[in-house]
Amino acid sequence: MILDCHSHIASFKYFPVEFFRGWSDTIKRTLPYTISDSQSKKLDLLFDGLMDDSECERLTIEMDEAGITKSVLLVIDFGIVYKKYEDDIEEIHKNHVELMSKNEKFVSFSGVDPRRGKEGIDLFEKAVKKWGFKGLKLYPPCGYSPSDSSLDPYYEICSSMGLPVLVHIGPTSAALPFKYSQPIEVDSAAHRFPKVNFIMGHAGVTQYKEAALLAQYRPNIYLDISGFQGELSHGHFGKIMEWNISKGLSKRLLFGTDWPIHRFFGKQKKWVEAVKDLERKKLISKLDLENIMYNNLNQILFSEVEHESK
Ligand SMILES: [Zn+2]
Predict the structure, then answer these.
(1) How far is the CA of 260 from the centre of ligand 1 (A)?
(2) Which controlled-vocabulary keywords does the entry list (predicted)?
């Protein structure tokens, strides 16, 4: 069985076009050749095509092909940075509730920008207590630190209910600042709220050693390996995973896809097989693989006993 800790609904209802363009422009700029304006426009259309799955139908098919049992759909609150989304946050949550009610393959994490003040806290509380959201997703590139005290009320709720917090770490769309997406930004919150499990999105990517160091010394920090699809073709992925395992992090690594961001890389099955290859090549053990693919997230999300004993 496989659990995906990191995915999103693929639709411009949830991702601002400007955000998406910032990301696709980075990809275009880092191509080894210069592209013409018309090629650039064609690429934009191709990128836009990734956002064609507002009902998660394609995602469900790819999950089935890949053997992924459940995926966590993460809400990102872009509404403070991109004002046209400001009033949509409650509706965005409700759309996720509807999807979860129709398809038991999905669970969701609420997403609220802490600068929404009391209204934001109330929305988060309703999301987890009434609507069944299983955690909190934070997006620090929107302009706040995950250790900012304005998030303390959210973490208190997470602490009392045994809910995890998934924090984006590392670079993102060039449209947003990266200042608060360093691994160390999670440390103060994780230190002050030891009962809350913090999942570092993308395991630090380019700063994977710093992320691993924090996970090694903080028992409530986990690493989500979505985003390493890009490292696969360069041969870095196996080395990074070996590094993490060598630091004793077998029980802290979580499989993730970050659907739909890496759809160009290939289908979900390709990514699942790439992770399974680590075991086939003896870079990780069978138990490591089972921990990464299922056991660790299952423990965080579905093990009541673990929450009570902490
Ligand atoms: Zn993501």
Answers:
(1) 8
(2) Lyase
For the chain, domains (ranges, CATH) are: 2-309 (3.20.20.140)
The alpha carbon of 158 and the centre of ligand 1 are apart by a number of angstroms equal to 20
Q: How far apart are CA 281 and CA 245, in angstroms?
A: 14
| Both structure tokens of 280 | 């086939």
Cα separation, 77 vs 109, whole angstroms:
11
Query: Which tens digits make up the pLDDT trace of 250-259?
Result: 999 999 999 9
CA of 125 to the centre of ligand 1 (A): 22
Neighbours of ion ligand 1 (CB under 5 A): 258
Peptide bond into 183 cis (omega under 30): no
CA of 50 to the centre of ligand 1 (A): 14
The per-residue pLDDT for range 68-89, each reduced to its tens digit, is: 999 999 999 999 999 988 889 9
